[in-house]
Amino acid sequence: MQYFNSSLLTLARESRELSQSDLSSLSKVPQTLISRFEGGIIQPSEEQASRLADTLQYPVDLFYQEDRIYGFNASVFFHRKRADMPAKILRRIHAVLNLTRMRVDRMLLAGDISPQFELLRMSVEEQGSPEEIARRLRALLHIPMGPIANLTAAVEDAGVIIALHKFGSSRTDAVSEWIPGHQPTILMNSDESIGGDRYRWTLAHELGHLIMHRLPTDSMEEEANRFAAEFLMPEKEIKHQLRNVRLATLAALKSVWKVSMAALLERAKQLRTISPSQYRYMRINLGRLGYLQREPVELDVPIEKPTLISALVTAHIKELQFGLKELAKLLHMREEECAGLYAPDLAPTGLRLVRMA
After folding, report:
1. Distances from the Cα of 174 to the Cαs of 80, 203, 265, in angstroms?
2. DSSP secondary structure string, 25-80?
3. Which fold has domain 1-69?
4. What's the rounded Cα separation, in Å, for the pair 162 and 151?
5. Which residues contact 63 (CB under 8 A, 6 or more apart)?
6. What are the beta bridge partners of residue 161?
7. Distance CA 181, CA 346 (A)
8. Residue 335: HSE in the Cβ half-sphere, 13 Å Cα cutoff
9. Is 203:162 a contact under the CB 8 Å cutoff?
10. How far is it, in rounded angstroms, from Cα 124 to Cα 144?
């Protein structure tokens, strides 16, 4: 008899943003049973499992996989979010991150990715500061001096999986995890409200979490922000450009460093190239012009696109000759959803699929 993985029923339900009551109403399976299924108290019959899978729009064999699921608020997750983020939405986002990890794991059964650089964990206690870790990581990844031309490509070159997902809310920018035995993964919010400068800051912030934080701490958000600031805007290279800055200066520097005017102003404050009164005056001006909510459209930074997952999909289709039906079966998805989420992108990635013997 196949083992029914109760955690995967919960995962599938939360990925569709449904409560047990919602699922019961839609599937006509009593909530009293669904509660017991998810608690691992009893196993559903084949007919019940099939009905639940159809309602959730997953193949029923998803429920019979052995994957370990890392649940809501597990210490492995880090995320930039506001305090008022609805729990139901956050549970969906965490479920999608779990599913992304599972799907990448299955595509890696045929081989492995060969990152150009090996990502290493570094602790603030050992290295002295988040800024020092940022400097060391730039050296490790062979990032040249000055602005990072394509942050997404640099992060993927270190073997980090970057996936895009519409969170349906701007209250959370990303979630990330680095579970031993799996690729470090960052799930980025691809909602239209997220601009290219905010995307890059969030990506650098999450990279800081992956590198520095094995467990949550009270200081981890501040440390990730300090890491991101130094990683994107190294002190030695930008400090002289931030002396006595004006709004016009911030606008010009934004196109060079690909970070927001507000981030550049904060960096000037951190590096003490402007006085506290100058900082307050410029913050007031940014707010008066509406730039704290939306900076000028003409200054928008292009949004970078990750390519590693697309490269894995392309390798299966082009090299391993998978059809859509086979790919969907491998990833435990319905064909329509698989086609929509993982259409192959043939853009070059700098990473390659290495066949295993």
Report:
1. 6, 8, 23
2. HHH---HHHHHHHHTTSSPPPHHHHHHHHHHHTS-GGGGG-------TT-TT-EEE
3. 434 Repressor (Amino-terminal Domain) (1.10.260)
4. 11
5. 4, 5, 8, 9, 12, 49, 52, 53
6. 185
7. 27
8. 5
9. yes
10. 23
* Domain coordinates in residue numbering, the chain: 1-69, 73-232+307-357, 234-305
Cβ atoms within 10 Å, residue 147:
19
Question: Looking at the DSSP assignment, which residues form a beta bridge with residue 188?
Answer: 164, 174
- C-alpha to C-alpha distance for 44 and 50, rounded to whole angstroms: 9
Give the span between the Cα atoms of 289 and 153, in whole angstroms.
34
Q: How crowded is residue 241: how many other Cβ atoms within 10 Å of its Cβ?
A: 17
Each residue's pLDDT expressed in tens, for the chain with a length of 357 residues: 579 999 999 999 999 999 999 999 999 999 999 999 999 999 999 999 999 999 999 999 999 999 998 865 455 566 555 556 788 888 999 999 999 999 999 999 987 788 889 899 999 999 999 999 999 999 999 999 999 999 999 999 999 999 999 998 877 899 999 998 999 999 999 998 899 999 999 999 999 999 999 888 899 999 999 999 999 999 999 999 999 899 999 999 999 999 999 999 999 999 999 999 999 999 999 999 999 999 999 999 999 999 999 999 999 999 999 999 999 999 999 999 999 998 644 333 444 444 433
- Cα dihedral 86, 91, 92, 93 in deg (nearest 10): 90
Q: How far apart are the C-alpha atoms of 321 and 327, rounded to whole Å? A: 10
Sequence letter at residue 52 = L
Classify burial at 103, counting beta carbons within 10 Å of its beta carbon; exposed 0-12, middle 13-18, buried 19 or more: buried
